[in-house]
Specification:
Chain lengths: ~200, ~250
């Protein structure tokens, strides 16, 4: 419906222009619009057909194929270039990925090597340490045994000396004749009390 | 308004014979109208052909302009007609180039605007109309007439709508030709009226001469407007041709 309205209004406007122009001309005593001189029409139609016809053939045979092929070639070329660029780009990405992968592998290898070396060193150190500790412990134990023996011998000597001293002291001070066993017992208990 | 010494504003549309010719009792003289038809086609064709002569991958200015025109029309055909329209592209392109160069060359002073001739625009519109109708008939056979039956309309209204559709269909060549013709006629008449006015006032002499500046400025503005109208009407004629072609190929 809008199409109808548009068409009708365009036609009406055109006819109005025609009529106004021709009445204006008629009023001023002119012969009217030159466009309405029917005797000029055959010539115009004839030349329109000839010129448009020849022009159409020229455009169809020469101009449009020429422009069309240039545009087509450009499109193909651009597509090709884009494809190639895309390929190169993915290749570069692949190279980069490869490089990074090898770098990672090397890094991992190095890290593992370092870890192994550290573990080995630690194990060795542990072993040496244990050996040394064992040796030391044997030495310490021997020394302690020696020390204990020396101490008990020394303690035994002290008791004997103290018992003799006690026998002497008891004889001279109290005129009591004590046996060695009694004296030793007394010394031991006194030592125990003193220690306590 | 027409005074002594001022030319009639429609005198510019007068057909003047250059080479007298006749065939079969008809006067087919080569006239100023024919000359500018020829010039439009030759200037357009030579411009396009020479601009593309180097076929450069990276176009220069001329080639860029030629390609732009081509793509402009190609896009018009593609979006209005679709892929079926490819076969008619050379015709639509020739039509656009012919009308554009005809309208533009017609704006040059002392030149002739053949698109201001109703018989020329009507002949082109009638050719489009008949051609498009034949294409529709060949492609769809009798089914073509379903074009005149609006879809989804109430049954009672259908007879009236068919009448309206048929009238609107047959008005197409008239509206198509009158639109271009009337735009050119009105525009060029107006230019001539203002130009005549400027000349007339300047002829008054003395201080009154300065008054001619006003119609002259209006003339400058109107010339710019007419350049727009020249391009626009070439476009409108072409795009309507595409739409009619689309209707014939696809029936709504």
């Amino acid at each position: 419906m809008t199409r109808v309205n548009r068409t009708v209004s365009a036609t009406a406007a055109g006819i109005a222009v025609l009529m106004t122009a021709s009445t204006a001309m008629a009023a001023s005593g002119e012969a009217g619009l030159p466009q309405l001189k029917i005797e000029t029409w055959p010539s115009q139609i004839f030349w329109l057909v000839v010129i448009f016809g020849v022009g159409y053939i020229f455009m169809e045979r020469v101009v449009t194929p020429r422009i069309g092929t240039v545009l087509e070639e450009r499109r193909t070329r651009l597509d090709d270039d884009l494809t190639r660029a895309r390929e190169a780009s993915s290749e570069a990405a692949q190279t980069r990925a490869d490089y990074e992968a090898s770098l990672d592998a090397a890094r991992n290898e190095a890290a593992e090597f370092a870890r192994n070396a550290a573990a080995d060193a630690a194990a060795k150190a542990d072993k040496e340490g244990a050996k040394a500790a064992k040796k030391m412990a044997t030495k310490i134990a021997a020394a302690e045994t020696k020390l204990a023996a020396a101490r008990s011998e020394a303690e035994g000597n002290i008791v004997a000396v103290a018992a003799e001293a006690a026998i002497d002291a008891a004889q001279q001070l109290a005129g009591v004749k004590a046996t060695k066993a009694q004296a030793e017992k007394a010394v031991k208990s006194a030592a125990a009390q003193g220690a306590g | 308004m027409a005074s002594q010494g001022m030319h009639s504003p429609v005198e510019q549309f007068e057909i003047k014979s250059i080479i007298e010719l006749s065939a079969g009792g008809y006067d087919i003289s080569f006239t100023n109208s024919s000359l500018f038809m020829l010039l439009a086609m030759v200037v357009g064709g030579v411009f396009l052909a020479s601009a593309m002569s180097k076929r450069e991958m990276v176009p220069g200015r001329m080639q860029g302009a030629a390609e732009m025109m081509y793509e402009f029309v190609a896009d018009m055909v593609r979006s209005n007609v679709g892929n079926d329209g490819r076969a008619y592209f050379p015709f639509v392109f020739t039509l656009f180039v012919f009308l554009l160069f005809g309208n533009m060359l017609g704006l040059i002073p002392y030149s002739y605007t053949f698109t201001s001739q109703i018989i020329v625009t009507f002949a082109m519109a009638a050719f489009v109309f008949v051609g498009v109708t034949l294409i529709g008939l060949v492609r769809h056979g009798l089914h073509f007439f379903s074009f005149f039956v609006p879809q989804g309309a109430p049954k009672v209204l259908i007879p009236f709508l068919i009448i309206i559709e048929v009238i609107s269909y047959f008005v197409r060549p008239v509206s198509l030709s009158v639109r271009l013709f009337a735009n050119m006629l009105a525009g060029h008449t107006m230019l001539k009226v203002f130009a005549g006015l400027a000349v007339m006032i300047s002829g008054a002499g003395g201080i009154a001469m300065t008054g001619s500046v006003l119609p002259f400025l209006a003339l400058v503005g109107l010339t710019g407007l007419e350049v727009l109208v020249a391009a626009l009407q070439a476009y409108v004629f072409t795009i309507l041709t595409c739409m009619y072609l689309n209707d014939a190929l696809h029936l709504h």
